[in-house]
Amino acid sequence: MITAELTSDVALAAIKDLSDSGAHLVRHDDFSGLTGLRPADWARFAENWEVLRRDPYMADGGTYRYRRYGQFELDMENGDLTQLPHGPYRQEADVNKLQGGVDRVYEPLTEAFVGDPVLRDVLVGLAEIFTGVDGTKKWNIKVTPIRTTATKDEAGEPTPEGRHRDGVTFITSLMIGRRNVTGGQSAVSADDGDLLVTTTLREPGDILLGDDRRTLHEVTAVRPEDDGEPGRRDVLIMAYTAL
């Protein structure tokens, strides 16, 4: 199912790669063009990462991750995007061997975050692509803004559980910003270990897309480029499940 919004080369390339291999990288200039976002939009949206809360559920004992969490339902027939009542975030232990099997209760998304037009533009734009892959017309979307910090005493682990899947239909990682960090290389692989995409998301709007049913993903640790001050890596994780 390809709507009029999906006639661009960027969207069509994403649909093709997701259909063929299950992974696709969109660079910031292409994704900004697809969603109609400008540098000022990304800069304003990034301010929401300054009010994230430390993740108290880190099974590795780390203090390097900050996040909030919320869920939405998107109906592609009428374009309705509805925020769902706040509840716990849960992954089962067979999906997340490090932190699965428990209800993790995170602070909800702020009104400023939910009300920023960037969020809707991104969520709907991605849903158009995913609907183009398999025809799904209604999505549950788990939305998690995450900041991973790094200091000279503690590296930050964007994926402390290692190579994994999230138990959803499509998984995405959108770069919001990096400051004073090295590392953070993302990789998407097939079930047999065949490497599909490796990249370092650097610019606001760089985004990695994966068919979570067919691929696994991981990100290497981040460390401060200058040990004299902390570094951080800000991303928006969006997990789409077909309803």
Number of helices: 5
Mean pLDDT score, rounded? Answer: 93
Helix content: 10-25%
Low-pLDDT residue intervals, each spanning 5 or more residues: 1-6
Order of helices and strands: HEHHEEEEHHEEEEEEEEE
Beta strands, count: 14
Structural summary, described in words:
This protein is of the alpha+beta class. It is built from five helices and 14 strands. The strands form three sheets. Strands 1, 2, 3, 4, 5, 6, 7, 11 and 14 form a nine-stranded antiparallel sheet that branches. Strand 9 and strand 10 form a beta hairpin. Helix 1 packs across helix 5. The longest helix is centred in the middle third of the chain and has 18 residues. The chain is globular.
Structure characteristics:
243 residues, alpha+beta, three-stranded antiparallel beta sheet, disordered N terminus
Strands, helices and their partners?
Elements: H1 9-20, E1 23-26, H2 28-35, H3 39-46, E2 53-54, E3 65-67, E4 70-75, E5 80-83, H4 111-115, H5 117-134, E6 138-150, E7 170-179, E8 181-183, E9 185-190, E10 195-200, E11 207-211, E12 215-219, E13 222-224, E14 231-242
Antiparallel strand pairs: 1-11, 2-3, 3-6, 4-5, 4-6, 6-14, 7-11, 7-14, 8-13, 9-10, 9-12
Helix pairs in contact: 1-5
Question: Quick recap of the structure?
Answer:
The protein is 21% helix and 34% strand. With 243 residues, the chain is of the alpha+beta class.
